[in-house]
Specification:
The structure is a homotetramer of 80-residue chains.
Chain A: H1 3-41, H2 46-76
Chain A binds a DNA duplex (16 and 16 nucleotides) through residues 33, 46-47, 50, 54.
DNA sequence: ACGTTTGCGCTTTAGC
DNA sequence: GCTAAAGCGCAAACGT
């Protein structure tokens, strides 16, 4: 077996692994859409649901930023 | 327990289920990035790899389209 | 004057207008970096400054999302 | 007025100046998108336009590089 | 100077 | 089919 073949084989494995993960991700995405559809069939508005999810995400991010900022201040003041 | 409470509870469950799936999706995405990083450390160019994956995906789509078309014909002709 | 020439001229004007706006944008970006540099020379940490700005932006976004959500609820309940 | 207050005030001014410049930048960005929308409504493909602008930009960069190189030589030779 | 990491812009996809 | 939003890739900025 030549080096070139070995190398190509390695690349092929990487590519196939990534493609498999992409399929997995797509599957999860379909599950998400299924959940939205299910909720919609129960009378919930998907648009509002997305806004709520977005808002909760923003709140989480803001809180994490707060903590990071505090941490940075502490580092700058030599408090560890 | 009032109807309103039941409804809110149901909505909450949908929201949390979707948020959980979002986390799952994010995890898979991180795995993908890990694979790219691993490939990069082996000397492969991630940008080129993405192009390859895209091309293979397009080919796959074309092939699936062909298969769907064939299936449609078969259905139309009563062959199954 | 042919139609083709007229069309090309119009496209050219669009392109040049956009390129000019891009230059303008780049100029503003340089002003921003100048401000960061000025602040840094006064002893302020650009990293912390960026975090503060980011945080204030997140807060603004969250507030806007809140208002949008409220508005959507009102629409759904037929309150205008 | 304490030093701390002075410092905070100065930081605040920097932050607000940068936020104002960010708004300005965002405004220019919106103008750009407006131009693209206008071009699109005239039948031009924004995607292709972006490719053209990118190409012209690359050419310009190469030209600027040449000019910088020339400048470097001039400095090295004491010509200014 | 390089590598890492974050922010910004584009592309694509989902909803109307 | 179009508009709007979310995810992704790229590039610039920071730290080492």
């Amino acid at each position: 077996m030549t080096d070139a073949t070995t190398t190509d084989q390695q690349l092929r494995l990487f590519i196939e692994a990534i493609e498999r993960l992409n399929s997995e991700k797509q599957g999860v995405q379909e599950d998400i859409q299924g959940k939205f559809a299910e909720a919609k069939s129960q009378g919930y508005d998907p648009k509002i649901m997305r806004q709520i999810i977005k808002l909760r995400s923003l709140d989480r991010q803001a809180r994490l930023e707060q903590e990071m900022l505090l941490e940075t201040y502490k580092c700058n003041l030599g408090i560890d």
